[in-house]
Amino acid sequence: MSELPIIARARQHSEAVAIRAVVGDRRYSELLARSAAFASSLLRGDDDLNEGRVAYLVPAGFDYVLVQWGIWRAGGVAVPLSLSATGPELEYTLTDSQAQCVVVSKAYGDKVAAICKRLGLRLTIVDDFEPTDPQALPTIDTQRRAMILYTSGTTSKPKGVVTTHANIQAQIETLVEAWQWQSTDRIPLFLPLHHVHGIINVMSCALWSGATIEPFPHFEMDAVLSRVADDAYTVFMAVPTIYVKMIQALESMSESNREKMVAGFGRMRLMVSGSAALPASVHQQWTALTGQKLLERYGMTEIGMALSNPYRGDRRPGMVGQPLPGVQLRLKSDEGKVITGEGEPGEIQVRGPSVFNEYWHRPEVTAASFEEGWFRTGDMAVLENGYYRIMGRQSVDIIKSGGYKLSALEIEATLLEHPAVRECAVVGVADDTWGEAVAVAIVLNEGESLEMEMLRSWCRDRLSTYKIPKHLHIADALPRNAMGKVTKPAVATLF
């Protein structure tokens, strides 16, 4: 019987440790056996789930993988749920995906029990699962639907992004090749497991390669840094917010403790930043502190990863590199022209085997999102000296002021270099003269103060005149989503 590629590859690493945790190591052989038994429990005597949707609310760890693999091996479509989602958000996802069953860890049972009862959905507690001899499992074609991930829904209701097993395989294989994943790799996993960053870049690439994952329920600074000092990891992936917090933690430590942590980071073979723009200043701070040059990349739910700085070669701060293996990418101007040279901004459009299949039950939206087979990402970028630089979302991060297209991300990166600024978010606000004027919300470092004219004076040496903020708001904190990104539409309401 032919198997899904990720299952077949796991057999090659049968006795290797897949999941390392305080409660004990779990090997690939255990994942294979228990996921087969779990698949049988989902089938309940049927031959195939035939792409029935199975939602699950399970924290990172052995149970998460056995549930995901069990759904796939039974022929179902996996719908991972956010551990931090509210009741209405969970109900929306379950209803929109037309889930037939919900799998949950006992600790999260109360979050979904009433919803499942109201919707008439079968609820399975994975902690209570008792494996029995598995039945014959269906043969799954890689072109079948495998997973539905929901977009953040910042501008409309979240959409279900459908990927096939072939899409997922392509997303994994391009990163395994580009970042040279190895069976000897060890990586912590503290990123949310309802996003591609955690599911594909960390978990699936590691399991594809026979590597070892050490899961955490969330980012636990002290625990993670302690393990770094023990040389527990060879690969590390995080969002920019986490790198900022680790810089602050390391700089506040005693010299002896800091030396241990810095040495642990320095010995890793790869450290990656993603899910939000990494300010060049943070990139440079991290290198100065640890000797590690962070690898920044670009991707999204619909396409997996598309661009990456090189594993071997020049990793440029503020840049996201070049197309990954198997990824075709082009820039398209507002006027509909394919951009062939450097220095001209355009929308990123992508095609290739990693690009998603469809938006769940939204054929019109799916059709509108493609142009001649190219997926329209809605993100703007520019090619500079052979590397792409992300300018931001067309709808949020691009400010059209006085005929210029300004990148909010670029202005933010500059402002973060100011000694008084801890965090900032730049947005465009309506202006009768300019169309849009640059506005900024700033969180100050402790004990600092900042006035508009002081900020303008500082910016004059660093920014073109039309990029200098015309509005300033000092905030205690900036609203962020689960991935640490500032939610800019919310910031815009501050002005």
What is shown here, in short?
By secondary structure, the protein is of the alpha/beta class. It has 15 helices and 27 strands.
Keywords:
495 residues; alpha/beta; Rossmann fold; GMP Synthetase, Chain A, domain 3; 3 domains; six-stranded antiparallel beta sheet; five-stranded mixed beta sheet; 27 strands; globular
Structural class from helices and strands? Answer: alpha/beta
Strand-residue proportion: 25-35%
Q: Low-confidence runs (pLDDT<50, min 5 residues)? A: none
Per CATH, which architecture of the largest domain? 3-Layer(aba) Sandwich
The CATH superfamily of the largest domain bears the name ANL, N-terminal domain
> Share of helix among residues?
25-40%
Number of strand segments: 27
Largest sheet: 6 strands, antiparallel
The general outline is globular
Cα end-to-end separation: 61 Å
Total count of helical runs of at least 4 residues: 15
Question: What does the average pLDDT come to?
Answer: 93
How would you sum up this structure, described in words?
- By secondary structure, the chain is α/β, with parallel strands linked by helices.
- It has 3 domains: 136 residues, Rossmann fold; 171 residues, 3-Layer(aba) Sandwich (Rossmann fold); 95 residues, ANL, C-terminal domain (GMP Synthetase, Chain A, domain 3).
- It has 15 helices and 27 strands.
- The strands form 8 sheets. Strands 16, 17, 18, 20, 21 and 22 form a 6-stranded antiparallel beta sheet that branches. It has a 5-stranded mixed beta sheet with strand order 11-12-13-14-15. It has a 4-stranded parallel beta sheet with strand order 4-3-5-6, with helices on both faces.
- Strand 20 and strand 21 form a beta hairpin.
- The chain is globular.
- It starts with a helix and ends with a helix.
- 43% of the residues are buried.
